[in-house]
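3.2 Worked example (two chains)
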Amino acid sequence: MTDTASNYNLSHEYRDRIYIRKDIILKLTEHGELNQTSLLSYCGLNLMKHKDILESLEKKGFIDRAEQAWGNKKIIKYSVTQKGREFFKLILEPYEDMFPRKERHVEEQS
């Protein structure tokens, strides 16, 4: 398989929900607060497919969601909570160390 073909396969593989959760919390930790559009874009997510993950993280107290009026529209912003930071450090980081994503594993072998 050529390098281009292998890159194509990696970029279109399924990403486990645990890694999606980690990516969300990581981006919020890095940026402090992000609006919904930016968060989804940074994480490569689709609102229709992944809204349940955001709602679950919020319900469990790992992230906060705030709505702000902006003219006749509303902006939804997310931030990570202290509980989310602890979950990231104690659970998500060690999980990825034990079970690295395939992209990372392939890069390490190159």
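3.2.1 Second chain
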Amino acid sequence: MKALLCTHFGPAENLVFQELPSPEPKENEVLIKVAACSANFPDTLIIENKYQFKPELPFSPGGEVAGVVLKIGENVKTLAVGQRVFALCGWGGFAEQVCVSSDRVFPLPSYMDYVSGASLMYNFGTSYHALKNRAHLQKGETLLVLGAAGGVGLAAVELAKLMGAKVIAAASTDEKLAICKEKGADFVINYETEDLREKIKEYTQGKGVDVIYDPVGDKYAEPSLRSMAWNGRYLVVGFAGGEIPKLPFNLALLKGCSVVGVFWGQFSKLQPRENFENITELAQWFKEGKLKPHIFKKYSLEDSAQTLVDFRERKVVGKAIVVCDKSLVNEPLESISETVKTKKIFQSFEEIKNTVGEIIGESAWLKITQEIIDDFAKSTFDEQWIHVNPEKAAQSPFGSTIAHGLLTLSLSPKFLGDIYEVKNSKMGINYGSDKVRFLQPIKVNSNIKMVAKLLEAIDAPNGGLKMKIEATYFVENNPRSVCVAELLSVIY
């Protein structure tokens, strides 16, 4: 495979483009054929050994990719060869192939192209976490975005407008600010030619801003903090300006404001449930046309070093994309939409035995309605309020009623009926489960499906065949499994 390599730390001009052996996925990893990789500001730091993560030399920059799974390592159960995915690899993305830990790989929705898939998660994930989880931005509040034409800055402008805020976008050129206006900014400030504090005072009638989104730092941090409204929140996102500012803490005291750190990478690892909720919401907004990454330019893999040069020289507005596989990137969405699920038909017991160790299929989606939950509660005499009282459950951490864990398991025969059939069999008996782990709650009105893997198929008395199937259950738009069980059955 071909890749852009950092062989020693230094500027982008030192990177080399060369041929390498294809990597092999280790345990819990997948090998991805990279269609597109986005460049982000940390890529310019990591090649100069100025970032908090320091990979061993040699390595490729590029931490956000979209592509197709080529191989899966041991213990990978939630992904399959040929699946369209997007992933956070940290580095290694400026290459034709990259190995990524499976917990950092996510299914790419059928309605999303590879360029968008490589553009959405880092910038929009960071900005949405900042505005929603850290600042708790409210409708009608005023947000100041520094570096508003950069990747995360432009995402913050777009998201804040969706969340009902007033947005002041600050950037270094009028051309960049024109893009911010297109994305919905109410006011703009050229902080190279205009007085930042005076313009904020003018736009807020002297009140100040409620939230500051700062991926720049440097000389713009203190005047912005001095422009904060009472009870404001200052979001520390990064230091693209170069210098890490030393803020006078008496300003936080006088304004009753909070200085809040934003580290989306750690958030996604330590609070995965909240992160997946954010990703689901972002994907839905993209599907509805409410979000669209601004693509500055597409670069070939051979010329990908120029991407980082343009970042360093502050030419990039929005997203810079490295195209690693033109054929995949140019593939029309119609040809890569989700295929209709078909049932696996086994003609004989011998054919079943030859399938041991393989995934035999996945079921259709089933919506878990309140009616299904209520019926299960009545039939099992398990009518806890978290399952059957929507008003009370709305005040719970889940925000709604949830399905019983055993309700999920009870759907197994229906799902297995969707997945496979044995021709000429007289009967099948599902007689239990060997192991069950309930991993995440299933909210009402979620769509759920099963993926089945055949673990064991051995002869049983009276001419039967004993099967052990690993059943993994998923909720739509959540790549994490919600339940895993080993199901036992005998076919005659």
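3.3 Remarks
Residues 335-340 have pLDDT under 50 and may be disordered.
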